[in-house]
């Protein structure tokens, strides 16, 4: 309605034309089409006389040609109609076209107007859009930036995370390695400590047995006797047995006695170590090697 | 069945192997040289009519203590006094730190005899080591005790005991007439049961046992000159060796009992001669212008060691019993004399002067090491026990001369209880034959 | 005083000896010298002064004679006769030489230190040294016999030098006279 207000003439004309066109079209076809094309086949009843074939044929041919002519005339007529129609149509078309062009023009105008408007609007809109876009873009940019940043951050974070993870992993690995090493050192230390403790107790036991061994008189250097002793957790001797005799009964008896007299033998408190001392073999070898 | 056994065996071997690889081995290279603690419980005499005058366990205790190798537990320390195996509680004796335990019983037997039973236990093992039943006359109980000492000693040291042996020695005491009276006496190795075999108003010296213990040779100054006699103990009969001008002294029997080494100075200075007991002939062994005296035979009868001052001061020399060159044995100290071989021939014991003090020492013939065993000022006349474990010698207790015993490693010393005045020149008999 | 005692002793002894001249053996020392007394014209009584040899006992017992010393002492571990005893041994040697029928046992001793048989031999060395010195002075070999007692007959029982030095000796033992 705005359009009417703005261009009343144009609009009215346009409406009339349109109406004309409609009428034209609805009835126009009937106007121009006074004859209906009947596409009924023409049946020529041929008397069945014996006719010379060539005549028949010529007749037929004539007929055919006549038909053909007729057909051609018809065709022509049709074609004329068609042509006319086409011309009409063309006219219409031209009219249409004109109309259309006008319309188009109008429309174009309108459109231009609208376009202008639109353009304006568009411009505005564009502007706005642009602005909005810009804004949006900005926003988007910002967002993108943000996003980028975020992504970057994310990436960075990811990288960092990865790096951290790596570092953490390395750290963890290092720590693990360190832990393992510490553990190993601890184990070694423990082992060394254990060994020291064991050696200490071996020394104590050796001294106690030596204190309790009254050497038999005579030549004993070079004699060698091994006594196997089974010990209870408290250090008491369960039994002592000569497992390798020196060949001298008095010597053997003296060393066996020494191991029994030395009970209770001093044992380490740590049951882990004490278990090594369950069975001891004393090698009595006076004079050393 | 076989299969299971095989598996069991295999497992067992494997286990034992694994056990072997885990067994801790401890080397013991030295002990202590102290005396073995032993408890000798008083023997029961309740089964003997009239009791016993002899305390067998005490004699055994004293014997073992004197050897230096044992430390008998004082009776007052005994917690209980079992006399038969079923009453023995080994824990008691372990708590007292006793390595060994001896218990015994005496009972009457037919014909006035007695039966002495004893058992020796290893306290820590809780086992009997040996046990014997000995029948004897009541008058011979000291001898039985000494036999028990020998059996215990042998079982616990692996060496033959010398407790059934005797000792001969010289005593001098002022007689009623104010003159010194000299005697040679023979007593048990612990000093008991001394019997005089000869008395004289003139000095007697150097008693020397024949190898089978039936005779003693000695130096007598009866007639104011020295001469050598050989007396048969059982009969008291004696034979005077042909004596010469000058010194007739220091008799020493060869291990085979056929010869006597001795000192004669008939040809100038004191020299060693060898007298053949069977042929009664003398053979000169050393020829020197110095003093050669105090001969002693090696256990294998091949060597004779003696004192000689041919080098200026008295030192010990060795010469073949068949004669030849003498070789010097002692190089430490300026006075070494009166040497005698240990029964195993590895050592000699002698008088060794150090810082003006005369002491008993042993010389290791292989290493040359001299071990001074005593610490007196005037120790002399060392004589080995026939098992080589102890040395008897003469010493002075500040008042008079007495006999003392020292273990051959010098660790234990004991004084011998002997009655009489001055006691000196001990000679330890051979093993009882 | 001494002279008087000597005179009296001399008189008594001469009387005794006159009776004992068949016993006593070879003692020729019937001392009669230095005992003359008499009255000299003029009434003064004189007495002769006697010298040491007026001892009318056995010369070996004459305290003023070196012969009375019958023990010679020795230093530790030594058989050397010290100078102080040379005169003594000379006297004994001479005495023996002058009295061929007299024999003496030269008995050697040692102190207790050291081993007994070695000390016998050591004491023999001492005795033989003395024996040699005596024969140097003229004693015949069959007049002296060296006997070695070692440490077996000490005269002093202590265990120090004061006793030992008394035991390191050679005794000249003459038969009873």
Q: What does this entry look like structurally?
A:
- The complex is a heterotrimer of chains A (289), B (433) and C (177).
- Chain A has five helices and three strands; from the N terminus they run αααββααβ.
- Chain A has 289 residues and is mostly helical.
- Among the domains of chain A are: 2-127, no CATH class; 212-284, Fusion Protein Consisting Of Minor Coat Protein, Glycine Rich Linker, Tola, And A His Tag, Chain: A, Domain 2.
- Chain A has a three-stranded antiparallel sheet, covered by helices on one side.
- Chain A is elongated, with a radius of gyration of 64 Å.
- Chain A starts with a helix and ends in a 5-residue tail after the last strand.
- With 433 residues, chain B is mainly beta.
- Chain B has two domains: 36-157, 3-Layer(aba) Sandwich (Rossmann fold), CATH 3.40.50.10070; 166-428, Neuraminidase.
- In chain B, 13% of the residues lie in helices and 43% in strands.
- Chain B has helices spanning 2-22, 56-66, 90-95, 141-157, and strands at 24-28, 36-40, 44-47, 70-72, 100-108, 113-122, 127-137, 166-174, 180-188, 195-200, 204-209, 215-220, 227-232, 238-240, 248-253, 259-264, 271-276, 282-284, 292-297, 303-308, 315-320, 327-328, 336-341, 347-354, 357-364, 370-372, 380-384, 390-396, 401-407, 413-415, 422-428.
- In chain B, the strands form seven sheets. In chain B, strands 2, 3, 4, 5, 6 and 7 form a six-stranded mixed sheet that branches. In chain B, strands 10-9-8-31 form a four-stranded antiparallel sheet, with no helix packed on it. Chain B has a four-stranded antiparallel sheet with strand order 11-12-13-14, with no helix packed on it.
- In chain B, strand 19 and strand 20 (303-308) form a beta hairpin.
- By secondary structure, chain C is α+β, with helices and mostly antiparallel strands.
- Chain C folds into two domains: 2-53, no CATH class; 66-173, OmpA-like domain (60s Ribosomal Protein L30, Chain: A, 2-Layer Sandwich).
- Chain C is built from four helices and six strands; from the N terminus they run H-E-E-E-H-E-H-E-H-E.
- A four-stranded mixed sheet of chain C has the order 3-6-4-5. In chain C, strands 1-2 form a two-stranded antiparallel sheet.
- In chain C, a hairpin with a 5-residue loop joins strand 1 (37-39) and strand 2.
- In chain C, helix 2 (86-98) packs across helix 3 (116-136).
- Chain C is globular.
- The two termini of chain C are 29 Å apart.
- Strand 3 (279-284) of chain A pairs parallel with strand 1 (24-28) of chain B, so a sheet runs across the interface.
């Amino acid at each position: 309605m705005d359009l009417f207000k703005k261009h009343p003439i144009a609009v009215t004309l346009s409406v009339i034309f349109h109406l004309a066109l409609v009428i034209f079209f609805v009835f126009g076809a009937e106007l121009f089409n006074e004859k209906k094309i009947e596409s009924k086949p023409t049946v020529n009843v041929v008397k069945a006389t014996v006719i010379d074939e060539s005549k028949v044929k010529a007749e037929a041919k004539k007929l055919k040609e006549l038909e053909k002519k007729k057909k051609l005339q018809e065709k022509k007529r049709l074609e004329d109609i068609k042509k006319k129609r086409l011309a009409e149509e063309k006219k219409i078309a031209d009219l249409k076209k004109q109309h259309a062009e006008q319309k188009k023009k109008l429309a174009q105008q309108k459109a231009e107007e609208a376009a202008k408007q639109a353009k304006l609007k568009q411009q505005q809109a564009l502007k706005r859009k642009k602005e909005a876009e810009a804004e949006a873009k900005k926003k988007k940019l910002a967002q993108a930036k943000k996003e980028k940043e975020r992504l970057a951050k994310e990436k960075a974070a990811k990288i960092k995370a990865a790096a951290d993870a790596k570092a953490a992993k390395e750290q963890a690995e290092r720590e693990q390695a360190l832990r393992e090493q510490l553990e190993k050192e601890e184990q070694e230390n423990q082992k060394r400590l254990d060994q020291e403790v064991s050696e200490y107790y071996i020394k104590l036991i050796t001294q106690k047995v030596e204190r309790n061994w009254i050497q038999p008189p005579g030549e004993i250097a070079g004699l060698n006797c091994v006594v196997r002793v089974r010990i209870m957790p408290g250090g008491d001797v369960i039994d002592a047995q000569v497992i390798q005799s020196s060949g001298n009964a008095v010597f053997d008896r003296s060393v066996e006695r020494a191991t029994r007299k030395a009970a209770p033998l001093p044992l380490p408190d740590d049951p882990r170590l004490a278990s090594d001392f369950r069975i001891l073999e004393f090698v009595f070898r006076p004079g050393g090697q | 069945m076989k299969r299971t056994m095989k598996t069991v065996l295999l497992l067992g071997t494997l286990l034992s192997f694994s056990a072997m690889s885990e067994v801790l081995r401890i080397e013991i290279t030295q002990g202590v040289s102290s005396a073995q603690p032993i408890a000798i419980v008083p023997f029961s005499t309740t089964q003997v009519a009239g009791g016993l005058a002899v305390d067998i366990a005490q004699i055994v205790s004293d014997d073992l203590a004197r050897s230096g190798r044992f430390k008998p537990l004082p009776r007052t320390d005994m917690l209980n006094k079992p006399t038969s195996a079923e009453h023995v509680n080994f824990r008691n004796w372990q708590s007292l730190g006793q390595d060994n335990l001896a218990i015994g019983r005496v009972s009457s037997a037919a014909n006035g005899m007695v039966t002495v039973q004893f058992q020796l236990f290893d306290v820590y093992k809780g086992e009997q080591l040996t046990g014997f039943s000995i029948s004897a006359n009541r008058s011979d109980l000291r001898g039985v005790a000494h036999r028990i000492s020998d059996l215990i000693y042998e079982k616990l040291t692996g060496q033959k005991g010398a407790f059934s042996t005797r000792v001969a020695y010289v005593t001098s005491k002022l007689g009623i007439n104010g003159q010194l009276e000299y005697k040679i006496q023979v007593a048990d190795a612990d000093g008991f049961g001394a019997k005089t075999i000869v008395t004289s108003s003139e000095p007697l010296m150097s008693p020397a046992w024949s190898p089978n213990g039936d005779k003693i040779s000695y130096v007598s100054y009866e007639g104011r000159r020295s001469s050598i006699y050989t007396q048969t103990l059982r009969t008291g009969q004696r034979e005077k060796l042909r004596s010469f001008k000058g010194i007739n002294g220091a008799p020493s029997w060869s291990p085979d009992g056929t010869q006597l080494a001795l000192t004669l100075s008939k040809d100038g200075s004191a020299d060693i001669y060898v007298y053949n007991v069977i042929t009664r002939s003398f053979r000169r062994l050393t020829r020197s212008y110095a003093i050669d005296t105090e001969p002693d035979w090696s256990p294998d009868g091949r060597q004779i060691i003696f004192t000689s001052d041919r080098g200026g001061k008295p030192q010990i020399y060795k010469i073949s019993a068949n004669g030849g060159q003498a070789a010097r044995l002692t190089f430490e100290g300026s006075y070494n004399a009166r040497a005698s071989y240990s029964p195993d021939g590895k050592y000699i014991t002698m008088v060794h002067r150090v810082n003006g003090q005369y002491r008993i020492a042993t010389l290791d013939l292989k290493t040359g090491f001299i071990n001074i065993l005593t610490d007196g000022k005037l120790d002399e006349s060392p004589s080995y026990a026939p098992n080589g474990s102890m040395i008897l010698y003469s010493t002075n207790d500040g008042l008079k001369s007495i006999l003392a015993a020292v273990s051959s490693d010098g660790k234990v010393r004991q004084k011998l209880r002997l009655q009489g005045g001055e006691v000196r020149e001990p000679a330890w008999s051979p093993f009882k034959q | 005083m001494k002279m008087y005692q000597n005179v009296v002793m001399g008189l008594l002894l001469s009387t005794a000896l006159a009776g004992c001249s068949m016993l006593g053996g070879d003692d020729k020392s019937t001392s009669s010298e230095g005992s003359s007394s008499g009255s000299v014209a003029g009434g003064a009584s004189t007495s002769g002064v006697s010298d040491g040899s007026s001892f009318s006992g056995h010369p070996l017992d004459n305290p003023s004679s070196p012969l009375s010393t019958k023990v010679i002492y020795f230093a530790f571990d030594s058989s050397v006769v010290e100078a102080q005893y040379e005169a003594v041994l000379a006297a004994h040697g001479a005495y023996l030489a002058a009295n061929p029928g007299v024999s003496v046992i030269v008995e050697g001793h040692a102190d207790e230190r050291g081993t007994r048989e070695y000390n016998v031999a050591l004491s023999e060395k001492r005795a033989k040294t003395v024996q040699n010195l005596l024969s140097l002075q003229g004693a015949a070999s069959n007049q002296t016999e060296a006997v070695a007692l070692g440490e077996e007959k000490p005269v002093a029982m202590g265990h120090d030098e004061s006793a030992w030095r008394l035991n390191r000796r050679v005794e000249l033992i003459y038969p009873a006279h």
